Amino acid sequence: MKRILPCLVMMMLGLALSPRGYASGDIPGPGDVFPDLTLPVPKEVSARGYLGVSEGDSFQLSQVKAEILIIEVFSMYCPHCQREAEDVNELYELIENDPQLRGKIKLIGIGAGNTPFEVNVFREKYQVPFPLFADADFSLYNSFGKVRTPYFFGIRLKTGRPPRVFYAKVGGLKGAQRFLKEIVQKSQE
C-alpha cells in the first residue's frame, strides 16, 4: 500500500499537468486538442485562397494556412448571432487591414443545424466576408460539445500538430477591437 499511494499521486499529478483531452460531448477548452474537422472545400476561389486550401471535395481544419483560426459557431435563427454579425464582420476587417495579422489569423463560421441554403441566406443578409460552413446534421456541432450560439473558439494551428484550443467562450464579442486584442494576447500565452 505504501508503494501504491505515491504511484497514484504521481499518476494524478501527471494527468493534471499534461495537456488535457476532453470526453466526447464535452466542450474543448484552453489546452485541449480541437477535433481536426473535415469541411467541404468552398466553391468560391476567393474563399479557397483565403483559407489556403486547394480544389477538391474536402479539407482538414489543420490544413488552413494560418497560425490562428477563430471559429464562430452560429445559427441563422439565433437572434444573438444576428446581432453579432456586424461586430464579427468588423473583426474580419480589422484582421485583414492589419499587415501584421493578415494571413496569420483567419476566421470561419459553422452554422449549427443550418443547411447550405440557410447559411447562404445568413451570409447574404449580413454580408459575411469570410467562409461559412453548413452543419445541417449537427455532426460538427456534436464533435465539439454542443455549444450554445454564438460560440467562439480560438485555435492554434501548427504544421504536424493537432489543432489546439487557446480560447473558448459563449456569447458576443463585446466589441471587435477588444475581442481581437484578447485573442492576440491569449494566443501568445
Task: Please give a structural write-up.
This protein has 6 helices and 7 strands, in the order αβαββαβαβαββα. β6 and β7 (164-170) form a beta hairpin. It has one domain (29-187): Glutaredoxin. Residues 1-24 have low confidence and may be disordered. By secondary structure, it is α/β, with parallel strands linked by helices. The strands form 2 sheets. It has a 5-stranded mixed sheet with strand order 5-4-3-6-7.
What separation lies between the terminal Cα atoms?
40 Å
Mean pLDDT metric: 88
Content-based structural category: alpha/beta
- By CATH reckoning, the class would read Alpha Beta
Which spans of ≥5 residues are poorly predicted at pLDDT below 50? 1-24
Tell me the major beta sheet.
5 strands, mixed
CATH architecture classification:
3-Layer(aba) Sandwich
Could you tell me the number of beta strands? 7
Q: Approximately what portion of the residues adopt beta-strand conformation?
A: 15-25%
Shape: globular
> If you consult CATH, what is the topology?
Glutaredoxin
As for the number of domains, it is 1
How would you spell out the order of helices and strands? HEHEEHEHEHEEH
Oligomer: single chain
Radius of gyration: 18 Å
Strand ordering within the main sheet: 5-4-3-6-7
Q: Please identify which CATH superfamily we are dealing with.
A: Glutaredoxin
Count of individual helical segments: 6
Helix content: 25-40%
List the helices and strands and how they pair.
Elements: H1 4-17, E1 38-40, H2 45-51, E2 58-60, E3 68-74, H3 79-96, E4 105-112, H4 116-125, E5 132-135, H5 139-143, E6 151-156, E7 164-170, H6 176-187
Parallel strand pairs: 3-4, 4-5
Antiparallel strand pairs: 1-2, 3-6, 6-7
Helix pairs in contact: 3-6
